[in-house]
Amino acid sequence: MDPMSTVLDLAAALARSRSGVVVVERTDLALLELKGADVLRYLHAVSTQHTADLRVGDAALALLLSPKGKIDFAFRLAVLEGGALLDTEAAAAPALAERLDRFVFRYDVAVTPQASGTAGGAVSLVGPGADEALAAADLPPAPDLPERATVAAGLVAHRTEPGVDLLGEAVPGALAALQRVGVRRAPLDLWEIQRIERGLPRWGRELTDDVIAEEAGLLGSYVHLDKGCYPGQETVARVHNLGQVQRRLAGLRFEDPGVGPPSLRAGLVAESGRRAGQVRSVVRHPDLGPIALAYVRRGVAAGTRVLAGEVAATVVELPFRTERLAREQSA
After folding, report:
1. Do domains 3-197 and 246-331 have the same CATH topology?
2. What confidence tier does 62 reach under pLDDT thresholds 50, 70, 90?
3. In this structure, what is the dihedral angle of CA atoms 76, 288, 127, 189, given to the nearest 10 degrees?
């Protein structure tokens, strides 16, 4: 068996991602292609993002909200010639496609779902060597900023905090080219560790239909504050103008690394006995031990000790401070 085609174990993948680069097949993502003359005008009308003035090669993050301002869907978009390519959680894609298709009767828009994983085309390069790997594989360079996307034949490249995402029908060929120049494959668990240590919320975990955008820290990134007239906008504006929310996204570090982490949605209880929040994502980090993302109540400060189910933890601000992240942030 070709060693380049095998997936590294998690420890080896983490080590390589710290100083070089690995590639993760994003089977957790699915793509939707929107085509037609009115795609950007339509997305501007239904989403939280200001898309009306975007041009080919622009990129943005957006939400679809309920009338009460709760998060129904989250996605990223890249503007293509004649439309846009959206990526979202694979579990959300069918319902997102149905939601977008439901209201296009007044617009020249066609919604076409694509498959998840490399069949539909989604991989992530993780590590500081991502750009060097793209160049060595003779692939299009990634943009410098997340507000831009590199749009090539069958391939879209997005800049991300951990590295670069490649999307589109040409991804299987791009993956093969990366492997030919020595880029090793890593398990999907690596991406989840990267996501949680950086405090990046995920649809279905932190982004659910009982959460408003400001609680997840999405104003200014997923939500454009200078536009209005979209479903849920009144709630967004009211909460933003009040200047406070009842809870916020924070990290948890568990005190005993040998104890199993709590279950998802486990309640948090402060030492006073009062409810303090709820666990949303948990992972066993190789440097920090078990860590989690949780929503904590407004009065729960960093450094507060809580019980997550029966497991003791300390609330920390995001992102989690690791030696590697400290080096990245000081570079």
Report:
1. no
2. very high
3. -60
pLDDT at site 107: 97
Q: What whole-number percentage of the chain has pLDDT above 70?
A: 94
Residue 321 clears pLDDT 80, i.e. is over it: no
Average pLDDT score, the chain? 92
Q: How many Å is the Cα radius of gyration of the chain?
A: 20
Quickly name the fold that domain 246-331 has.
Elongation Factor Tu (Ef-tu); domain 3 (2.40.30)
Question: Token pair 């239904």 is at which residue?
Answer: 46
Residue spans per domain, the chain:
3-197, 246-331
pTM: 0.93
Taking CA atoms, 107 is separated from 50, 75, 103, 229, 259, in Å, by 17, 20, 8, 17, 54
> Is the domain covering 3-197 a CATH 3.30.160.100 domain?
no
State the residue for tokens 């003359």: 37
